[in-house]
Amino acid sequence: MERLYSATKPTGKLTLGNYIGAIKNWKEMQEKYSSIFCVADLHSLTINIDKDELNENIYNQFATFIAAGLDPEKNIIYCQSQVKEHAELGWIMNCLTYFGEASRMTQFKDHKQKEKNVSVGLFAYPMLMAADILLYNTNVVPVGVDQMQHIEICRDIAMRFNSRYKETFVIPRGIVPKTGAKIMGLLDPTKKMAKSGDNDNDVIYIEDDDETIMKKFKRAVTDSLNRIKYCEEQPGVSNLLTIYATMKNIKIEDAEKHFEGCGYGELKKQTAQSVIDELSPIRKKIFELKQNKKYLEELMEKGAEKARKIARETIKKVYENVGLVNID
Ligand code: TYM
Description:
three-stranded parallel sheet, two-stranded parallel ribbon, binds ligand 1, 328 residues, globular
């Protein structure tokens, strides 16, 4: 069975974009792959995040994975910081990456443009992400479109390592879902729906209550063309159609047919309802799980223990292949 690896970064609350672009697909793929799902908490320190907020986000994301149907027995589900090999391999990845290629990462360039002080950690984040993936002999990395550039650099570094030293790493391939690889904001459908958005009404959070979800969709920006069609001139309508199609597990064309003759009010209402139907039971389960912190921590430890075993083996191999002293 091939190995699947993916992660979310607890810099904020998980969004409908994270759900559609990542978690929903993981749930289906866990049957086909030997899967590892990670709360990539070390990545959150790349921005200046409040310690209590970070801690809460970590528990929330871990609970969301379980609540969304990822099986902690069958898969490995863990928090990155519990497995120190990530930091160890991250350093080695930094040393293999050229300054120029890291500077070309568009996510970093965007942050640098918007913010005055960006950390070295943020610059080095794709290399830590490469370490996450490569530690586990990963074959496939299911992500949204925004992460593909990071998978590409991971592949480049892994190939460089293999040719400079010795064949060590499996070269992973990134995969994006056919529908929903980039869910857009509700108020600005030309920009990705993001955890770190400026306006809460632009984003649906997995933990939003039913009423809030309905209200946010009712405010979603559409256009004045008065037709329900998936096309470039209608980014808002196309986004709603995409969300509806993924929630109902149908093709975009079938969603278009379903809404033939309907007005935008109906499109918004039914899309909101499809999201509510899917997220509401997950939200209840997250709430239940969070009541039992001890149980969550037991699951975290079990997952970390399984992850450490694989990661340790990789690090030993890497140390040996680069010429470091390899004593455990
Ligand atoms: P993060 O937390 O930003 O996003 C988690 C996953 O959600 C996807 N995603 C979206 N998909 C569709 N539409 C959107 N609007 C949307 N927003 C986010 C992302 O593409 C991602 O798949 N660096 C990663 C976390 C990470 C990781 C890894 C991923 C750390 N190590 C190793 C894969 C493998 C990140 O910031 O994800």
